[in-house]
Amino acid sequence: MTTLPLAPNERQFWRIVNASADRYLDLQLDGQTFEIVALDGMPLAYHEPKSPTRITNHLLLAPAGRLEAIVTGPGPGTHSALRTLCVDTGPDGDPNPEMVLADLVQPGSGQPLSHVASKQAHAVDHRPPVYKPIDVEPLKKTAPDFIVTFTEDKNGFYINGRKFAPDASPMMSARVVSYQHWRIVNQTAELHPFHIHQVHFLAYAENAVPLAHPAWLDTVNVPYRGSIDVILDFTDPVIKSMSVFHCHLLNHEDKGMMAKILFK
Ligand SMILES: [Cu+2]
Predict the structure, then answer these.
(1) CB within 5 A of ion ligand 1: which residues?
(2) Structure confidence at residue 115 (pLDDT)
(3) In whole angstroms, what is the distance from residue 157 CA to residue 159 CA?
């Protein structure tokens, strides 16, 4: 079992990557919270400088998802663990039982961990992130520019009825320096994490209901027999040429649930 040293009341900055091929994580630190700083590499402060962090008891992290958060060590003598809660991946999904990922250990008094931590804290860059205000409200009110529909059968996995082919033409194109409203529809009886390369998007509604915590991501869980609405930000001038979007369960991606997008 992996162990993580964390002294009582010590604050640490954690970066967690779900690098598994097909395992959902619903992360929880026993009795503690995550103070979220960034999701999928995007600092919360970038779009919401007045709300640079958000506190949560647990967080669903799909394959490819990344969490950066501040955690605080539980009180002295407490045994606790970093665990994933059971995730309901749907009637056709794989089991995702609860599991301990790592035990927290409280270092002995001889180990000057807190000194290391305080030195690291001084190295943090406190300059405010470059703020780029975006008015997403008009985009939310428009019909989707594009609908991505996930389906599957005994022969494979599909986006808009098509299996990925290396020589296929792009399913979609997007002008760089634009925003688009997409709806990701999951018509199957299992979860699929939608992932796109080079781009972040604001996930703001699930099954047409506004999310309590809209978030800028590049990987989002799409509920089974449900949908997610997103606003994609294609304004970064480094976005270039042919790219892909796909389900990030690797078995699904490999069996066809991927498509090309051309950035123009
Ligand atoms: Cu999938």
Answers:
(1) 192, 247, 249, 252
(2) 47
(3) 7
8 Å CB contact between 202 and 196: no
Distance CA 226, CA 213 (A): 18
Distance 257 CA to ligand 1 centre (A): 7
254-263 residues labelled b (16+ CB within 10 A) or e (exposed): ebbbbbbbeb
Q: How far is the CA of 226 from the centre of ligand 1 (A)?
A: 13
Record the tokens describing residue 247, joined without a space: 């389900």
Structure tokens at 52: 């640079």
Query: Is the CB of residue 252 less than 8 Å from the CB of residue 238?
Result: no
**List of domains in the chain:** 3-120 (2.60.40.420), 137-263 (2.60.40.420)
What mean pLDDT, rounded, does the chain reach?
Answer: 92
What is the Å distance from ligand 1's center to 252 Cα? 5
pTM, to two decimals: 0.90
CA–centroid distance, 146 to ligand 1, in Å, is 19
- Please answer whether residues 197 and 162 qualify as being in contact, where contact means their C-beta atoms are separated by less than 8 angstroms: no
Q: Which amino acid is at 88?
A: D
If you measure from the C-alpha of residue 26 to the centroid of ligand 1, how many angstroms do you get, rounded to a whole number?
17
Q: Are 234 and 259 in contact (CB under 8 A)?
A: no
Distance 186 CA to ligand 1 centre (A): 9
pLDDT tens digit sequence for 3-16: 999 999 999 999 99
Place of tokens 């059968």: 153
Calpha distance 194→148 (Å, rounded) = 9
Residues in the chain: 264
Buried b (16+ CB within 10 A) or exposed e, 181-201: bbbbbbebebbbbbbbebbbb
